[in-house]
Specification:
The structure is a single chain. It contains eleven helices and five strands, in the order ββααβαββαααααααα. It has 257 residues and is α+β, with helices and mostly antiparallel strands. The relative contact order is 0.14. The N terminus is likely disordered.
């Protein structure tokens, strides 16, 4: 089911810019979740967080939800690859979650919370760790989830430990107090990581657990895992996260494909 959509009209300086956001709907039967936004999706989190796009949070008609297996012609015309998220800005397309996040930071620099630090060095290191999520965490997440034991691809423990080590490396780079990666306020790096951090339950369902130790059971790495849990709790309890996260049963059929 594809929901109706209206362009989002957002003030940008003295001009009005029309924005339309295409995001995926995963509900198992092609129906959209009862929640606003039925897929964990980095750009949805970014849009919910970013003040110029407050109307996205207030009206479900501001977002066009599409079945990823039956993509509408309107999306394909904007983005021939059919990727979501796709942002239509002034009748021009943008896609890739991180690109959209940085675009919103550049297009609306004086509106609301910043998605990147103002200090040039911290801004650069934040981009490094945003890229780390895309190039290290997500691939190891997928390898772990898709792992099938055979002689050529190593052991289950090796694949699991590779994934856990990416989480530890990410966590060690965080601000020591937090609760977010850069400190008191969430940034693009947090929203890039959140969709996968909040899906760790899929390893409980398919793999017998992700291997993240419970509180007090992290051994020599307990300090790192304690900081991880603090970050994860902060992200999971954000209103924008809660409003754009579907019930777990909608994801299981997708991961079984």
């Amino acid at each position: 089911m594809v929901l109706p959509v209206r362009a989002i009209v957002v003030e940008g300086g003295s001009s009005l810019i029309a924005l339309t956001v295409y995001t995926a709907s995963f509900s198992g039967r092609g129906q959209c979740s009862k929640k606003k936004g039925s897929r964990i999706n980095t750009s949805r989190y970014v849009l919910q967080h970013h003040a110029p796009l407050a109307k996205v949070r207030k009206s479900p008609n501001n977002v066009k939800q599409v079945n990823p297996y039956h993509k509408p012609e309107s999306l394909m015309k904007l983005n021939p690859r059919g990727l979501v998220p796709t942002l239509q800005y002034d009748n021009k397309p943008l896609y890739e979650s991180t690109v959209i996040g940085e675009f919103l930071e550049d297009a609306y620099p004086d509106h609301g919370s910043r998605l990147l630090p103002s200090d040039p060095y911290r801004r650069a290191t934040s981009r490094i760790w945003t890229d780390f999520v895309s190039t290290r965490v997500i691939p190891s997440f997928q390898r772990f989830l898709q792992f099938q034991s055979n002689e050529s691809n190593g052991s289950f423990e090796q694949v699991r430990d590779e994934f856990l080590n990416t989480l530890k490396d990410f966590t060690k780079a965080m601000d020591k107090d937090g609760p977010y990666f850069e400190g008191e306020n969430p940034a693009l790096v947090d929203f890039n990581m959140a969709p996968f951090a909040l899906r760790l339950w899929v390893f409980d369902h398919f793999k017998g657990g992700a291997g993240v130790p419970a509180e007090g059971q992290g051994g020599d790495s307990e300090e790192i895992w304690s900081r991880w849990r603090k970050w994860l709790s902060a992200m999971a309890n954000r209103r924008s996260i809660k409003e754009t996260t579907s019930e777990r049963e909608h994801y299981v059929p997708i991961y079984q494909r």
